[in-house]
Design a protein that fits this description.
22% strand, 2 domains, 41% helix, six-stranded parallel beta sheet, L-2-Hydroxyisocaproate Dehydrogenase, Chain A, domain 2, alpha/beta, binds 1,4-dihydronicotinamide adenine dinucleotide, Rossmann fold
Length: 308
């Protein structure tokens, strides 16, 4: 199966690397607008194949979308990342134009493609892909919750002093510093609610550090992160290609689910060979429900700035 990754920058290349190393698809095509860049990244990655033991073929192209024809899944990471002090929402003007063009090229060459949207502000970019691609809604999936949940689990494990594999937790709602909703009420350590181990102050620390997880890294790195975003995308792609039907929080077009309409927002979903197999309805506390609505209102306002 062929996977296309548009944008061979930090996130795109990391995503291609994790996909290749997991050895579950035959080909990854990297596309970038910068002359020779995707070809160079592909060659460098291919030269790790014998070292890392994978058979996935990675190729690169400078904007020749005919090379992406017949892709099963395409990941859009093209665009600019944020710099320290910037919000994801400030990227909208430039990234919307890029995402719209890229989507048209992808669909023209792979009419059956499933698209994973990564470029920020991601919930709004996913909405833009819904409005412009002509693809059915189960084939458009925004990546945010998979990454934010991994960051939540990292902070939970830190606060609990536990191995990360012992903890479970999920982040839903918006992929933004203010709109993220780490579901503390449902987080567990070995099946036991973490609220039994963490006091209110510790819970608040975990929640707040999760919400600014991306901003903390942007401050440290001078640009946004790439390892965990790349790994998060690779988990989603694998769940589609191998029809694993994993439950992953993703930004999806809501039509009545969670009380919202005509908006892409992070909700848990079963991800399998058709893309979104099912949106999972979980019961939120009154406080979580109120925060979900608040996040939706903020995303809706940003969507209002889109021109398409
Ligand atoms: P980067 O600057 O390293 O890479 C972006 C690449 O896109 C560059 O190589 C650039 O040449 C390419 N590009 C620009 N316009 C293009 C076009 N029209 N066609 C093809 N390629 C094009 O940026 P990075 O760090 O990889 O981030 C990419 C995007 O992903 C940003 O918008 C960032 O905010 C977002 N992001 C989203 C995350 C999420 O959880 N949804 C997590 C991390 C980053």
């Amino acid at each position: 199966m062929k996977i296309t990754v548009v944008g061979a920058g930090a996130v795109g290349a990391s995503c291609a690397e994790y996909i290749a190393m997991k050895n579950f698809c035959s080909e990854v095509v990297l596309v970038d607008i910068k002359e020779g860049f995707a070809e160079g990244k592909a060659m460098d990655l291919m030269q790790t194949a014998s070292l890392n033991g994978f058979d996935t073929k990675i190729t690169g192209t400078t904007g020749d979308y005919s090379k992406t024809a017949g892709s099963h899944v395409a990941v859009i990471t093209s665009g600019i990342p944020r710099k320290p002090g910037m919000t994801r929402e400030e990227l909208i003007g430039i990234n919307a134009g890029i995402v719209k063009d890229v989507t048209a090229n992808l669909v023209k060459n792979s009419p059956e493609v499933i698209i994973i949207v990564v470029s920020n502000p991601m919930d709004t970019m996913a909405y833009l892909v819904h409005k412009t691609s002509g693809l059915p809604k189960h084939k458009i999936i925004g990546m945010g919750g998979a990454l934010d949940s991994a960051r939540f689990k990292y902070r939970l494990a830190e606060a609990l002093g536990s191995p990360i594999s012992d903890v479970d937790g999920m982040v839903i709602a918006a992929h933004s510093d203010t709109g993220m909703l780490p579901l503390m009420s449902k987080a567990t350590r070995n099946g036991v609610p973490v609220t039994e181990f963490l006091n209110a102050e510790q819970q608040n620390y975990v929640t707040e550090e999760t919400k600014v997880g991306g901003a903390t890294l942007t401050k440290l790195l001078g640009t946004s992160a790439w390892y965990a975003p790349g790994a998060a995308v690779s988990v989603m792609v694998q769940s589609i290609v191998c029809d694993q039907k994993k439950m992953i929080p993703c930004s999806l077009m809501l039509e009545g689910e969670y009380g919202q309409n005509d908006i892409c927002l992070g909700v848990p979903a079963i991800i399998g060979k058709n893309g979104v197999e099912k949106i999972v309805d979980i019961t939120l506390t009154a406080e979580e429900q109120a925060k979900f609505v608040e996040a939706a209102n903020a995303v809706r306002e940003i969507n209002g700035d889109l021109k398409y």
